[in-house]
Amino acid sequence: FAQLREGLSRTSNALTENLSAVLTKEKLDEDTLDDLEDVLIRADLGVEMAERVRSIIAKNRYDRGASADAVRQVLGDEVTKVLDPVAQPFPAMAEKPFVWLVVGVNGTGKTTTIGKLAHRFETQGKKVTLAAADTFRAAAIDQLKIWGERVNAPVVAHDVGSDPAGVAYDGLKRAQETNADVLMIDTAGRLQNKSDLMDELAKIVRVLKKLEPEAPHGVLLVLDATTGQNALNQVELFQQVAGVTGLVVTKLDGTARGGILVAIAERFGLPVHAIGVGEGIDDLESFDAEDFARAIAG
Ligand code: GDP
């Protein structure tokens, strides 16, 4: 929790400062309430959350004025309510091999998250195989191989420019033949062309189903918190092209935009399985609604 609080300190400090700056009058008036709502929206928490907190404060505090502390208390409670239903651990992964398709825009932290997760699953006694189906970037393939060495997991990779679906197919075949518990498939997240992205992911899914009709068992979308409102568009896009089953939100260390996770939860209600709080192998934390809410609200 200390690491989370430290990581989210930029989000909560900015919020506290901005709240103190607008809550200067003895009594609340509509202008002050407008400013309060603005502060919350600018903290990326989403319009719904901002309106709700405003109306609670207005109802309870109108004749008394409100301190930043009082607002933070209300905010903490409201954020907890929104995050509680989405804070869900990873599924038990009873299917063998359990196939994860890992999707997201390039640079959000897909490969790193796969490495961290492989490590976590292995410490739970699971045997993990990785597949480098982002075949467009040589660096992505290399990066996954480095993680594979670090966590001692085999990496199935083809040459740059080869068919991503072929890599996914070989990855699943290898996982089946070697009796792996979990297969994690890294994919390319080029946004230049939505129909290309859709075709590519659809083809990967199609070939996986030739070997295992239920695959993929999970579609994990990796989102970068520092992209703020953009992350909302990314959820929408990947929902359409890949049918997301769960989220990991990365780079929550040292960003002032941690509030975006609340807006995502409110808008989509997708499970958040874990959060990324650094570049290291252990910098992946389970997602706890109350801890997160209190870390943001300060
Ligand atoms: P990909 O293109 O989606 O596969 O992204 P990468 O996994 O290559 O990550 C892009 C950059 O973000 C790398 O420099 C990672 O070390 C960094 N990164 C990934 N996750 C986190 C995180 O939780 N916190 C921080 N600070 N950096 C991260």
UniProtKB/TrEMBL annotation:
EC number(s) per entry: 3.6.5.4
Record bears the keyword Membrane: yes
Residue intervals of the Signal recognition particle SRP54 helical bundle domain: 4-83
Major location (coarse): membrane
Limits of the AAA+ ATPase domain: 96-276
UniProt-annotated location(s): Cell inner membrane; Cell membrane; Cytoplasm
Keywords: Cell membrane, Cytoplasm, GTP-binding, Hydrolase, Membrane, Nucleotide-binding, Receptor
Residues where GTP binds: 104-111, 186-190, 250-253
GO cellular component, one term: cytoplasm
Reaction equation(s) it catalyzes: GTP + H2O = GDP + phosphate + H(+)
GTP-binding is among the record's keywords: yes
One term of GO molecular function: GTPase activity
Known role: Involved in targeting and insertion of nascent membrane proteins into the cytoplasmic membrane. Acts as a receptor for the complex formed by the signal recognition particle (SRP) and the ribosome-nascent chain (RNC). Interaction with SRP-RNC leads to the transfer of the RNC complex to the Sec translocase for insertion into the membrane, the hydrolysis of GTP by both Ffh and FtsY, and the dissociation of the SRP-FtsY complex into the individual components.
Family: Belongs to the GTP-binding SRP family. FtsY subfamily.
Subunit: Part of the signal recognition particle protein translocation system, which is composed of SRP and FtsY. SRP is a ribonucleoprotein composed of Ffh and a 4.5S RNA molecule.
Protein's name according to its UniProt entry: Signal recognition particle receptor FtsY
Lineage, broadest ranks: Bacteria, Pseudomonadati, Pseudomonadota, Alphaproteobacteria, Hyphomicrobiales
Portion held of the full protein: 103 to 400 of 409
